[in-house]
Amino acid sequence: xxxxxxxxxxxxxxxxxxxxxPGEPKPGYVTPWDxxxxxxxxxxxxxxxxxxxxxxxxxxxxxxxxxxxxGHFIATCWIAQIHKHIEEPKPGYVADYADLPEWxxxxxxxxxxxxxxxxxx
Length: 121
Hints:
By secondary structure, the protein is mainly alpha-helical. It contains 4 helices and no strands.
């Protein structure tokens, strides 16, 4: 998996947090790629790859998904990575999509869109 792909994911996350987070986000939410922990870089690259494959095998029909479906896909893939990299994650790290704050659901949908947009280039 390419680190560049993980960087695309992370930059989309930061852009989404900057756009949707109410108030001032926690510093960890907007940590630049080069300062992001290795496990989180690996997780970002893995989720990017899952989305890329999903788009590819559906022959681009993911564009017909609702915004909620797009965000839900990102959230579910991310939760699997949390379980992979963190032995006993905090409940908030693995919360169901419906239980995520609105800013995070919107950010997740933005991430899906950013990956899809990059694939169209």
